[in-house]
Fold:
Amino acid sequence: MAYVVYIIPIMMEKIKNFTAKIAIIGLGYVGLPLAVEFGRKFDVVGFDVKTDRLEMLRRGIDVTLETSSEDLKAAEFLRYSNDINDLRDRDIFIVTVPTPVDEHNHPDLTPLIRASETVGKVIRQGGIVIYESTVYPGCTEEDCVPVVERFSGLAYNTGFFCGYSPERINPGDKTHTLTQILKVVSGSTPEVALQVKALYDSILSAGTFMASSIKVAEAAKVIENSQRDLNIAFVNELAKIFHLMKIDTNDVLAAAGTKWNFLPFKPGLVGGHCIGVDPYYLTYKAQALGYLPEVILAGRRINDGMNEYVATRVVKLMIKKHQQICDSRVLILGMTFKENCPDIRNSQVPGVVRALKDFGCKVDIFDPWADPEEIRKCYGFDAVNDFSQLDPEAYDAVVAAVAHRQFRELDWSAFNKPQRVIFDVKGFLPSELVDGRL
Structure:
């Protein structure tokens, strides 16, 4: 134990003097901005198993658009690698790999476990591993730490230490960027928590909030997005009810929004790497403990069912205009999970496409932000990102699924024909232009 007491002030001194050597495991939407910011001040290795991703970054190109070429150049102490030997001299490891769910909506910890194995193979006495990936409360210490122990031969909280600082990256958001977001931090001992806090404070303008334990920090992350999921589910259910009442949901929300404490949520498709996933991590853990989380799962059922609801609304509108549904042509505008970003992870728009295809429609997809090859690889759909490749006259229905700025600026007169259905999922088009919206 005397060694542990000795190692703590040494690591803090390294952090304060910017001599701590850092490894970022995973260079996606979360890891890369982190590597860039730390790479301005610390010796950083950005580690990723995707060779093509590393090559693009070396050329100064970030396809996620979360960092610019100028940002990448400014990180003068950052280098990229997929060689585990480049991690052997690191003091601190920050794990930022994805934590998806499987086809049964159960947590898929495979990337997290593999990252923990990698860290375990190289971490040295006194090293710290900090997890940022979204998990259920207890996962870091119950699932990840034993893996690091097994592969390193070191004991937890004597040989190596742990922290948890949940990511709060909002893809496409250029206001709430990494350095401008208050970050929750935690550590496996009070001393380590202070080190983790000092580390993040060194790059964050907004500062940090120290949680009382790793478990508390994990829980805070999953409820942040579960809360948003439930609020959106509520307005999605309202949209269904108000449609039956022949009331415009946007008009109702605008009126209700005049009250000072009304929360401004809007109906829509709920996707992405967080809101559509995190609640399942919480409900999985709750059910493992013998509790059935009815409210959270009800919200998930509503939001997961919105893609089929949208497709059914579109088909019904087409029938009202006496269109033949089988072999009709439908144009989907947008495939990303949100506006003005290229992120297609866990997008709910593919569900709309599949439902329309089940009705017999022929569906084309246009998204100026998304990579057509990524769409084909992830969802099996062909798509275009150039409007000139489309014939606006060819479609029986147009579904504005994502509110990209290019769609807001589009000349909608080319689509506005009497027999054509225009459906606005995000409620950003003038009401007189559309036949239906949520």
Observations:
- The radius of gyration is 24 Å.
- The CA atoms of residues 316 and 325 lie 9 Å apart.
- DSSP finds 15 helices and 13 strands in the chain.
- Residues 214-244 form the longest helix (31 residues).
